[in-house]
Amino acid sequence: MIYDDFFSDALRRLHDEQRYRIFIEIERIAGQCPFAVWKTPSGPRRIVMWCSNDYLGMSQHPRVVQALTETATRTGIGAGGTRNIAGTNSPLVELEHELADLHGKQAALLFTSGYVSNQTGISTIAKLVPDCLILSDELNHNSMIEGIRQSGVERKIWRHNDMAVLERLLAAEPSRPKLILFESLYSMDGDTAPVNRICDLAQRYGAMTYCDEVHAVGMYGPRGAGIAARDGAMHRVDVIEGTLAKAFGCLGGYIAGSHNLVDAVRSHAAGFIFTTALPPPLCAAATAAIRHLKSSDSERQRQQSNAARVKQVLAEAGLPIMPTSTHIVPLMVGDARLCKEASDLLLNEHGIYLQPINYPTVARGSERLRITPTPYHDGMLIDRLRDALVDVWGKLRLPFVPAAAAAE
Question: Which residues are annotated as catalytic?
Fold first, then answer.
């Protein structure tokens, strides 16, 4: 038996389905967001990043970089092991306090990534609640789905953002413990959850709420706490989950909630207990980013302004953008092969890096390019993006739409 043939067959299937992913080597340039250097076989080439989740460019902010370098000089790089064995470093403790304050919760718990915080947090919470029933929005992220699967508890899926369906599922189990899982901002479509309406139903039918704010923390609310804070519902959500790797420009994930809930997860979650803690320099950098965005709204305002300009300009050019009220700008293609070809043309001919989004991230037939403007994508770059996309759409004979339809 030649085991390598199994892996070769798996890769061939991805190629046949136009889903094989190619990673290009790039090096971002500190202080020059959104520019980067593409390491091509023929030499370095300067490109513009249009698909980064470093939404506000905080990974390059001077205060964040300074906090990281000063802490690394003082403490070294690594945490030295798990918190259970090697102890809890002071910058990590400070960061958890900062996160609890950000979300108005009693406590917060750090994980190595946003994926792990969902996977581990959801599975642990559900296991600790006897006879728990999970109610999950159908568009929830893979990390949440994995958390549900690992919990082993019963789950029911409700149609995306459909409050009538959610209420029917809640009403069918009036006395059973229930956990409602949803995201505040769905990153592929750019739409948001009706947080207050979900909390109304949770209160009426005795359910807990767990809200993934990964794509919203740092971006919305008066201090950057997310959509729930923007909508005045943060105090109503039992568990808020977020990441440090997007708008805060660092690495790591977390949950925030009551003292008892957070302590119970800390004490029972294998994904926390058996993994090395976040390095002190990264914790210090994340704390610096959170503190800055708590007091500064200028990055959010510029980012929202640029996102609105991108939507307007692309819609006026007849490009098929999906209507959103957030900083996410999905541009529909609807075919995996054409989506990859469009991405390749943008990079090779226009120096624009915009990765294709395909299955399983989105459903087959809804492949797209996902544009994420930053505060630093100025008018000239936006116009260059429009011109490049119009050129690519023409070369690939992709359909344009009436400007009025694209703007709806």
Answer: 246
